Amino acid sequence: QTKLLALEHIEPGSLPADLDWLQRQAIASRPELHAQLATLEKDRQALNLARLAYKPDVTLGATWIDVGSTGVSPVANGNDSFLITAGIT
User: Fold this and answer.
1) What confidence tens digit (pLDDT) does each residue in 3-27 have?
2) Using CA atoms, how far apart are residues 82 and 89, in angstroms rounded to an integer?
């Protein structure tokens, strides 16, 4: 629990121009802030996974089988096969 004091006046030149650098410094010097940001990212990922799990998975497929004319059994016609598959889970 760090006590913070408010400044009455801030000189414009005393502030860093790079806010990303300032944020990285804050995270590096405060492990609890780093842990909270990691928890926030974990929760965002869990939310994204929940959104994906809500929608069904759709699969489509196509297969071509070259039967050929040599070595065909007497009951086969020698025509190639073309298969189309679809699935929802």
Assistant:
1) 888 878 877 777 777 888 888 888 8
2) 24
3-state secondary structure the chain: CCCCCCCCCCCHHHCCCCHHHHHHHHHHHCHHHHHHHHHHHHHHHHHHHHHHHHCCCEEEEEEEECCCCCCCCCCCCCCCEEEEEEEEC
The ranges assigned to domains in the chain are 16-70+78-88
Q: What is the value of pTM for the model shown?
A: 0.46
Q: How far apart are CA 37 and CA 26, in angstroms?
A: 12
Owner of token pair 């790079």: 18
Question: Tens digit of pLDDT for each residue in 27-56?
Answer: 888 889 889 999 999 999 999 999 999 999
- 């089988």: which residue's tokens? 65
Q: What are 49's two structure tokens?
A: 């996974």
